[in-house]
């Protein structure tokens, strides 16, 4: 049986003071489900110190595909490992769309993370235009194949995040999520955890998590509000 996982993606939000309050509440409130927060780089030290010895893991939102060298502004996997990062988001649609990250780059980052012993949370998902054109499976396959041709998926985590559902308040229906998760499941096997992301809220989490191939969530906006994030974690726990 796959253990559920709820991952918070803080994106470019936070302050030392706000993080303190949020982390205190999450540590205090999380019960019975694996939980990770993926935070901006400057807060890794704060988060590592705050969460050490707790059941909440921490991760980053990006990394360099290179091991070291003349890459101004980039952060290497080994540096993240020094901060105790256990997870890192790879291939998030905001990296792909806003920063032009390619499938090949995302795959190289996946390999770099694995090489440092950090679990990638590898994100795939289609735009609305691609969905409307009936290309959802082709798009997520292309994104995933870039990784599978060069790496074993291993204990990495897969996240299905339809781009049209991110930050829009328009979530995929549980059935839409399940259909894509089942498709992805055929590719990565029964052991891999597949998270759903895109406007997951306290009110819709339980229905989405009740789907057989949904193993938890990747949470953006709602991960910044302790009560909402905890409610989502509780919804993940109540599944079988
Ligand atoms: P929202 O939950 O804010 O829609 O963001 C989803 C996301 O992009 C998580 O990585």
Describe the structure.
It is a single chain. The protein is of the alpha/beta class and 240 residues long. It has one domain (5-237): Alpha-Beta Barrel (TIM Barrel), CATH 3.20.20.70. It is 41% helix and 15% strand. It has 10 helices and 8 strands. It has helices at residues 16-29, 44-51, 77-82, 93-99, 103-115, 128-132, 136-148, 174-188, 205-209, 226-237, and strands spanning 5-9, 34-38, 56-60, 87-90, 119-124, 157-160, 194-197, 216-219. Strands 1-2-3-4-5-6-7-8 form an 8-stranded parallel barrel, surrounded by 5 helices. The chain is globular. It binds 1,3-dihydroxyacetonephosphate (13P). Residues 9, 92, 161, 166-167, 197-200, 218-222 line the site of 1,3-dihydroxyacetonephosphate (13P).
What's the layout of helices and strands?
Elements: E1 5-9, H1 16-29, E2 34-38, H2 44-51, E3 56-60, H3 77-82, E4 87-90, H4 93-99, H5 103-115, E5 119-124, H6 128-132, H7 136-148, E6 157-160, H8 174-188, E7 194-197, H9 205-209, E8 216-219, H10 226-237
The chain binds 1,3-dihydroxyacetonephosphate.
1,3-dihydroxyacetonephosphate binds at residues 9, 92, 161, 166-167, 197-200, 218-222.
